[in-house]
From TrEMBL:
This is Glutathione-regulated potassium-efflux system ancillary protein kefF. Residues 2-124 form the Flavodoxin-like fold domain. Keywords: Oxidoreductase. Pfam families: Flavodoxin_2. Gene3D superfamilies: 3.40.50.360. SUPFAM superfamilies: Flavoproteins (SSF52218). Signal peptide: none annotated. One of its GO terms (cellular component) is cytosol.
Length: 166
């Protein structure tokens, strides 16, 4: 189980954490594995070297939850975290669990801290049984190969990050 915990900085992870990803996710480990042909584009997006392992984000945010809602000024938190969850975690094979997002993390009294600590403890205790985000697998038949575009009959008329979830 990999847990990446970080404050949301400029709509992403801090540079030092991205640097860790850049150094650890080496060719032959996190990418560049498996058959690359007109029929298959490697083992990735749920099928990589980290398949069978789980990952989750714990993200602290200064803004209100409403700021990161579907109609919030910052856009949905699911969209903001998509490049990390889908591109950094799902790409090499992780089953990605829904994130634990802590809003208004800079405005916390003792009562709220205790409540959030207890919620996180329960969440961590249940990680083995938490269903992952149902991202589509690259080689599962949902994407046209070699174009790697979602089949026209799946999520017709829709676009955006959401179409890459089953």
């Amino acid at each position: 189980m990999l847990i990446l915990q970080f404050p949301l900085w400029w709509f992403s992870m801090p540079a030092i954490m991205k640097g860790w990803v850049d150094r650890v996710y080496a060719n032959g480990f996190a990418y560049g594995v498996g058959e690359h042909s007109d029929a298959r584009w490697g083992d990735r997006y749920g099928e990589g070297t980290l398949a069978g392992k789980r990952a989750m984000l714990i993200v602290t945010v200064g803004g209100w939850e409403s700021h990161y809602a579907a109609r919030g000024i910052n856009g949905p938190i699911e969209d903001i975290l998509f490049p990390i969850q889908h591109g950094i975690l799902h790409f090499p094979g992780f089953a990605v669990l829904p994130p634990q997002v802590i809003y208004r993390s800079d405005r916390m009294d003792d009562e709220r801290f205790t409540e959030l600590r207890n919620q996180l403890a329960q969440r961590l205790d249940g990680l083995a049984h938490t269903p992952p985000i149902p991202f589509r697998r690259q080689n599962g038949g949902d994407y046209e190969i070699p174009a790697l575009t979602l089949r026209a009959d799946l999520a017709p008329g829709q676009s955006g990050f959401g179409v890459h979830r089953e």
